[in-house]
Predict the 3D structure of the following.
Amino acid sequence: MDLTKLTIVQAGQGLRKKEFSAVELCQAYLDNIEAKNKDVFAFLTIIKDLAMQEAKKADDLISSGAKLPALAGIPMAVKDNILVKGVKCTAGSKILEDYMAPYDATVVSKLKKQGVIILGKTNLDEFAMGSSTENSAFGPTRNPHNLSRVPGGSSGGSAAAVAGDMSVFALGSDTGGSIRQPASFCGLVGLKPTYGAVSRYGLMAFASSLDQIGPITKTAEDAKIVFEAISGKDKLDSTSVSMESSPEKMIKPSQIKAGIPREYFIKGIDPEVEKAVKSAIEKYEKAGVKIIEVSLPNTQYALPAYYIINPAEASSNLARYDGIKYGLSKEGKALLDVYLETRGQGFGAEVRRRIMLGTFTLSSGYYEAYYKRAQKVRTKIIQDFKNVFNKVDVLFTPTCPILPFKIGEKIEDPLSMYLVDVYTVSVNLAGLPALSLPIGQVNNLPVGMQIIGQPFEDIKILELAKAYGA
């Protein structure tokens, strides 16, 4: 039995039946990391000794005959912008190259209570700014399906770790598609929960009104297990809310009305991707889902609005990295020199670009013309979704308009890179739950379909993904 091919459910069953130990399971993944990480570069930090200690604890718990939580003894990976106490957290940036996390993020605390085994921290676009994991200060991650291709971003390291059988599941963060797009590129299930469903405490802030932590897994059932473990109200995050637990209900496809937004199937989408997504929609239709064409008329404004709001919030959040409090600090003759030298050398090109863009859009004389107008567009986009959800239960769209592209293909053209997020950013602007569902391959490269749900109906879209067979 290849232990590194197991899902959370399968690994959990094997541990309970004592077909293998947590130490054996953990060692299998550590061996795979050692063999593959030099080529894929999914992990920035590997915490081998700590992982084995936790595996031994899990085995002791199993031997005691105590009832095991669903994730006990399961090896996982954590995106390197989510804090794990006592472990380096770089956010993929030179400015935090030696920063040690002083506490656990709430999601990490919750998972530790379940008895997970954290294998290490995964690579990402610097401060989660990117769609390819090429913007990491430490080097790009490669797609395990094809090492010449990107794994998507910004949670590319997390997706590559799971797709490359180096972790059973992983945590990522999604600000404009950063869980769903790499899940699509790596043939996995990636859930971006409803805004507020999962605590952001301990996630390095990028764009606070858009950021959300979520799971990247091999199956929808696995994603549901992780989501239920990490969701809920947290007193340390005032934007978090309680998820009402309702009796488990099977989702019957015949009870579902799915909307197909016509604005998501226009010029620019790869014809093969479109064909694959339409084929997946037909599969749902044959299973009994009622398919209805709908319109989200303000979709065309989502990307420009997002790329004003996102840098504006980033410019404010990243002001804390000034060379004084923590992280990299460069000497200067005066305080301003310290700021300029530290930030100039510590931040990469994409981060500097967004800070400058955000500072400009928030500056006197431009705030009304850019930031305020973008927020008005955001309100229109939210209203679009409310209108269509009066007619349908969920929306089916492509996750990404193209297949995984080659490393280096788009890195010199920021606008081309931003367009990769065209189908995902609206969800973050509206705070909705959405997931990417693997629906097959085109030219041996994975393709994902996005399922968008109504607020706090995260479980419904996960159940619908399970009905597809994911």
